[in-house]
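so the lab meeting is tmrw and i was supposed to have these ready like two days ago... anyway. pasting both below. for each one the top line is the aa sequence and the line under it is the structure tokens. i havent really looked at them closely yet so no promises
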Amino acid sequence: MFKEMLETVIEHTEGSLGALIMGIDGIAVEKVLGDANDLNLDIAAAEFTSLVRSSQRAGSDTGLGGLRELVISLDSAILIMRLLSRDYFVVLAMAPEGNLGRGRFELRKAELQLAKEFAV
């Protein structure tokens, strides 16, 4: 089920490089690579897991609420991270010229479809 969901996100998003579901501990649950098979997406996502944890804490500490989405724009990729629960999130890696709005939309759809699986 997870693999099919990630494949759908990649197929529907122009410029997507890959997608994965990560635990907040930095371990990938499922991974699907698109056009960039040489991209080490799970290692990149694991490195940015600390930003997800920090952002969760900052939102809570400031009273602004829980983290829902985090977008990181790098020279050669854009990473969109959408939380599925407190402990899991989905990551979409895109080329800089990819369709960011469509990527965000597809991750939101995936979040809604996976909500039952990640309910605590």
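ok protien two:
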Amino acid sequence: MEMLRALIGPDNGDATAAQFCARAAILFVVGIAYIRVAGRRTFSHASPLDIIVAIVVGSNLSRAMTGKAPFGPTLAATLLLVALHRVLMMLTIRWNWLAKLMKCEPVVLVREGVEDREAMRRHGIGQVDLLEGLRLEQVEAPEDVRLATLENSGKISVVRRHAAPS
């Protein structure tokens, strides 16, 4: 515990810039883990990485603005988060394994008209949710679907089994 306290500094706002950066890095990792636990549909149109950066940057800037945290070290920690976000996004382009970790992989919910109930259960998609997603794509029933996928954004994309009548 003493090692952690030395790493992150005191809780009274007297931490050094390096300690604020250590706190920011720790919160970054913990925040992504929490959002991953909450599930992709919780913040459906942003990646966990984008969400945690937005929340923490907003919070940091707010605290710096109101004087609740030392201005310089708080800005340093916020800059570290923004730079870390940028670097991770650039690395996800290069390494697919990192992209999968940061952005999730699409999940097949329906294939050739057959629902994958286990995949739906694992990702918190109920029958009502699936049917809503299908209706939003102008499809009436799972039997009319060649492929329905829960995308990284939390949206359900649909490929019809038969072309829609013109």
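from a quick look at the 2nd one: The first helix runs from residue 2 to 8. The mean pLDDT is 84. will dig more after coffe
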